[in-house]
């Protein structure tokens, strides 16, 4: 029994560790995010269009039947002599087989269009997966940043509380004035307000991650800063990769190909079509003289639509305009992705420098604050305002550094998403 309890405790402990790191949230979002679920169902739906298009090439079979009952009363002949009443029951069964022989390649183009739409739906799903992964990463590291901000502000409140207490004693001894104490008390009030704001921002970021990952967020989450993804070595390489892999470009290219198939389908509607029909009908009690009748028929039909009030020609023109529109949109998407790639690369490159600068800023602010605080406590020339300013600079430096950490990590995954490489498998611990 003790062994079972130990195993259970270890299992729960292991699960609690798994349930608060980045990879847990990513997997949860990948499986449970409603938008991704909707896109997966959409993919299944569009796949059935291929089977529907293939069905146009296969024969269609239909069965029909009818039962008719009729009764004749008050009958007379031409001489006016009354005739006996009569009744008749008739039963008809028919089987019909239709096979399309030629449709001017309308069926062929419809099938190819369905296959292109399925490929496009795959890339739409991939794009949605990338966006969900990125939003999860962004929300996770924003939560880390807000958690640190709250911690820094809480420590700042604690320091100002100690300073107010110390300044009260020093004022009673005549070492500082009432103005100095008022400055400390004002700073304490400001620090408390900042702490409340940090708490609110933390709650908002926690709710946002919970909404995207579709799982509850524990109070303490594991800080996963050492994560990486496969990135290009230079901007030119990034541009080449995005041109080949970006889901947005691939979706736009397929949209253009689909528009060409739509144009071919409309043109095919002006072509002749041929079909063949075979039917077999069996009738019981066909008439008063014929008890049964079996009939077989084979019919070939050829049709060639010439004009439908201009509707068919207008449909072709409409498809031509749609094709031009899709081509223009494709060129615009290519330019947009190029711009997004260049911007993402620039942000990624500068984020590292900003992070290094903020680290130096924190170190300098810590040294300055320690020195000024010691001088103030020793009764040197440092004023209360000097201490307040140095602590504010240190707090801002720490918060700026935490934000720079978030921005640098997120910039990696933003670049990875823009070039079309972001996936669960591409994320690893460095």
Mind explaining what this structure looks like?
With 430 residues, this protein is an alpha+beta fold. It has one domain: Outer membrane efflux proteins (OEP), CATH 1.20.1600.10. Helix content is 67%, strand content 14%. It has a four-stranded antiparallel β-sheet, with no helix packed on it. Strands 3-6 form a two-stranded antiparallel ribbon. α4 packs antiparallel against α7, α4 packs antiparallel against α9 and α8 runs antiparallel to α9. 25% of the residues are buried.
Give me the secondary-structure topology.
Blueprint: H1 2-18, H2 22-32, H3 34-54, E1 60-72, E2 86-102, H4 106-172, H5 178-213, E3 227-229, H6 235-245, H7 247-268, E4 273-284, E5 292-303, H8 311-377, H9 384-418, E6 427-429
Antiparallel strand pairs: 1-2, 2-4, 3-6, 4-5
The CATH superfamily name is: Outer membrane efflux proteins (OEP)
- What is the approximate shape? elongated
CATH architectural name? Up-down Bundle
Distance between the termini: 41 Å
Order of helices and strands: HHHEEHHEHHEEHHE
Q: State which percent range the strand residues make up.
A: 5-15%
Tell me the number of structural domains: 1
Largest sheet: 4 strands, antiparallel
The top-level CATH class is: Mainly Alpha
What integer value in Å does the Rg equal? 39 Å
- Identify the strand order in the major beta sheet: 1-2-4-5
Instruction: Report the average pLDDT across residues.
Output: 87
Task: Specify the helix fraction band.
Answer: 55-70%
The secondary-structure class comes to alpha+beta
Count of extended strands: 6
**Unreliable residue runs:** 5-18
CATH topology: Outer membrane efflux proteins (OEP)
Give me the number of helical elements: 9
């Amino acid at each position: 029994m003790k062994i079972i309890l130990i195993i259970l405790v270890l299992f729960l402990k292991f699960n609690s560790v798994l349930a608060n790191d980045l990879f847990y949230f990513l997997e949860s979002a990948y499986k449970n995010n409603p938008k991704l679920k909707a896109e997966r169902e959409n993919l299944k739906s569009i796949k059935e269009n291929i089977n529907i298009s293939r069905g146009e090439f296969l024969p269609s079979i239909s069965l029909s039947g009818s039962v008719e009952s009729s009764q004749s009363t008050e009958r007379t002949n031409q001489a006016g002599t009354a005739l006996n009443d009569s009744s008749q029951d008739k039963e008809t069964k028919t089987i019909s087989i239709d096979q399309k022989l030629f449709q001017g390649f309308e069926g062929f183009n419809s099938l190819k269009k369905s296959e292109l739409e399925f490929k496009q739906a795959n890339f739409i799903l991939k794009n949605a997966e990338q966006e969900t992964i990125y939003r999860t990463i962004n929300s996770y590291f924003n939560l880390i940043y807000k958690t640190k901000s709250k911690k820094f502000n809480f420590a700042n409140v604690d320091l100002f509380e100690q300073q107010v207490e110390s300044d009260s004693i020093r004022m009673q001894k005549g070492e500082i004035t009432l103005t100095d104490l008022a400055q400390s008390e004002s700073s304490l009030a400001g620090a408390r307000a900042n702490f409340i704001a940090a708490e609110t921002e933390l709650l908002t970021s926690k709710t946002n991650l919970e909404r995207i990952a579709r799982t509850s967020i524990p109070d303490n989450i594991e800080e996963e800063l050492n994560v990486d993804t496969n990135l290009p070595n230079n901007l030119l390489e990034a541009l080449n990769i995005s041109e080949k892999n970006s889901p947005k470009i691939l979706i736009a290219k397929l949209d253009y190909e689909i528009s060409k198939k739509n144009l071919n389908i409309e043109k095919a509607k002006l072509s002749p079509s041929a079909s063949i029909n075979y039917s077999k009908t069996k009738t019981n009690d066909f008439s008063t003289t014929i008890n049964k009748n079996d009939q077989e028929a084979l019919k070939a039909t050829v049709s060639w639509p010439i004009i439908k009030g201009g509707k068919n020609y207008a449909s072709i023109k409409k498809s031509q305009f749609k094709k031009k529109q899709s081509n223009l949109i494709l060129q615009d998407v290519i330019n947009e992705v190029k711009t997004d790639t260049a911007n993402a690369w620039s942000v990624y490159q500068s984020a590292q420098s900003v992070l290094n600068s903020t680290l130096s800023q924190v170190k300098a602010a810590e040294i300055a604050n320690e020195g000024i605080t010691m001088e103030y406590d020793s009764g040197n020339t440092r004023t209360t305002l000097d201490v307040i300013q140095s602590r504010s600079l240190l707090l801002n430096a720490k918060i700026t550094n935490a934000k720079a950490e978030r921005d640098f990590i997120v910039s990696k995954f933003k670049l990875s998403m823009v070039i079309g490489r972001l996936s669960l498998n591409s994320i690893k611990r460095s």
